[in-house]
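Appendix B. Chain record.
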Amino acid sequence: MTNIKDVAKMAGVSVTTVSRVLNNHPYVSEEKRKAVINAIRMTNYQKNINAVHLIKGKTNLIGVALPYFDHPYFSLVLKGITNQAIKKNYKIVLFQTDYREEREIEALQMLKQKQIDALIICSRATDLSIIEDHLQFGPIVLCEDIKSRKFSTTFVNHYTVFHKALAFLHEKGHRKIGYCIGRTSGTNSHMRELAYREFHEKYHLPYRPEYIIDQCIYFGDGEKVIEKLTTMMDPPTALLVTSDQVAAGIVISCQKRKISIPDDLAIIGFNNESIAEMMNITTIEIPLMEMGKNLFLQAIDEEISSKEIIVKLIERGTV
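Structure tokens predicted for this chain:
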């Protein structure tokens, strides 16, 4: 296999000159540059990219760990990340974790082994202390509100957002409010549950744990939600649904069962995806691509920073 010394010998120049040509260094004469390029073509020489990374001390690769690629929430965050990566001449290494801790550890190991320059974790299952142990190997950016000066974070204040959405439904006359969520674990989920509990305390309403429905991730899960509600003796009259996809599935299922929206069941979705606009679903708009953009910029910035993403309620026809 041809190496850089072979190229230098064929071109009649030093190894340093070949290196300068390969890295587009300006201080090489046109004659020597042409000789090196000709030798590269004749020998089909390829740069040892690992050696280049070792010399530069960086790979221009950013790791992104996220539970699902096919979920609109994460795909839009990822789009925001990749758009910025292209602009900044970085490439992205993706880790689909399915919330499995061992897969998140694999991503952390790649950071430890200097195979990536930084790691963005969009949603995690791994204990924060384990992630913190890997900060010595490179920047780690989180998509959650944590009180730590060691991590850069871009986040939505899910406590405040949830509380405001619940208060909005209360103003509309609802006293039996439930919510649908992807999982009950995780920092963001805990903040939502805290807001839900404290809302009921504030308005002196009975706390109904059966109104909390988890494992609601995809469109088809909307049918599961309505099936569960129809088995309840005293079902909720309103739902906060943390995914517009699931909210859309609930709307379709209600239409099949002749359940009137919003008269029988009011719905607020999250994210303001295209499907929410198409189906006239009231939703909380989260600028997910902006979130992804900021996560990437934090990953390549040496300074630790924290940014809250501002959201807004878009009132449509389901409340």
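Further analysis of this model is presented in Appendix C.
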